[in-house]
Design goal:
four-stranded parallel sheet; 9 strands; 2 domains; Rossmann fold; single chain; alpha/beta; binds phosphoric acid mono(formamide)ester; binds norvaline
Length: 301
């Protein structure tokens, strides 16, 4: 059981809680494959609000609730009275009278903060412009699965210091993974997050992808153009920040490549890398399911 009501950034959880979720996720994955899964959330309901499109987040949460014996309701913000001006605060108060959890994918991070403040049930951030904590729970699970440990590893983040990067910094800092971030000037991760994380692990910020990738155990990138971004920014990243075979060669021979997906082959990553032997992106995508089930089963109801 974790103490925080909501998961908005990953900064809310301490090391013990992150490890607990990762370890439970690994157990739930084994239980599912063995056919010994238990209905830990029987008759519970999750409301899922989407202001933005999604493949993995929607399907993994919906399937996860089903597998846990519960139910999920997909709510496009277009279909809610939100689209006609009902406030987020009133929406949060109303949904709390029907459902046991709310997950939302939003533009402004302040929207998920208002949801959490006004909901009496746990609120999970399924991605905001600033953070993507659920992705990082799956990523940490994947790293533990592949490397057998978390503490003491080195992760290289290459490309955009975006929402996924901000939550990655929190996640890595909590579990003792040092991070080298290579991003163009002006695209750094949130400075407050960097400051907090630097007090826990080594965080190196550079504009040199080769330097960041050197001796890394894990190399990670994400799209150069997030859902809320304009396409013109691509030229700031491409080709210098592309993860290709030459960049992977700077990392350890045993390094894995990760990407939250969706990917643009030929932009932030070459197909030789994302479809190559070091890539773990399909396990990473699958682990969204198991880690979110672990999260849902750990939140205070
Ligand atoms: N990685 C991720 O969150 O994917 P979706 O946008 O498809 O949900
Ligand atoms: N940074 C990306 C992640 C998508 C899962 C975005 O916000 O669009």
């Amino acid at each position: 059981m974790i103490k925080t009501k909501d998961l908005l950034t990953l900064g809310e959880l301490d090391k013990k809680q992150v490890i607990q979720i990762v370890d439970l996720a690994l157990k739930l994955k084994k239980d599912l494959k063995k056919g010994t899964a238990k209905p830990l959330l029987k008759n519970k309901t999750l409301a899922m609000i989407f202001q933005k499109p999604s493949t993995r987040t929607r399907v993994s949460f919906e399937t996860g609730m089903f597998q846990l014996g519960g139910h999920a309701i997909h709510l496009s913000s277009q279909d809610l009275q939100l689209s006609r001006g009902e406030t987020i605060d009133d929406t949060a108060k109303t949904l709390s009278r029907y459902v046991d959890f709310i997950m939302a994918r939003v533009y402004d991070h302040s929207t998920i903060e208002s949801l959490a403040k006004n909901a009496t049930v746990p609120v999970i951030n399924g991605l905001s412009n600033s953070f993507h904590p659920c992705q990082i729970l799956a990523d940490l699970m994947t790293i533990k699965e592949k490397k057998g440990k978390l503490d003491g590893l080195k992760l290289a983040w290459i490309g955009d210091g975006n929402n996924v990067c901000n939550s990655m910094l929190y996640g890595c800092a909590k579990v003792g993974i040092s991070v080298s971030v290579a991003v163009p000037r002006g695209f750094e991760p949130n400075p407050q997050v960097v400051k907090e994380c630097k007090s826990l692990v080594d965080i190196d910020l550079t504009q040199d992808p080769q330097k960041a990738a050197k001796d890394a155990d894990v190399v990670v990138t994400d799209t150069f153009v997030s859902i809320h971004d304009s396409p013109g920014r691509l030229r700031k990243f491409y080709p210098k920040y592309q993860v290709n075979s030459a960049l992977m060669a700077k990392a350890k021979k045993s390094a894995i490549f990760m990407h939250c997906l969706p990917a643009k082959r030929g932009q932030e990553v070459t197909s030789s890398v994302i479809d190559g032997s070091q890539s773990v992106v399909w396990d990473e995508a699958e682990n969204r399911l198991h880690s979110q089930k672990a999260l849902l089963a750990s939140l205070p109801l």
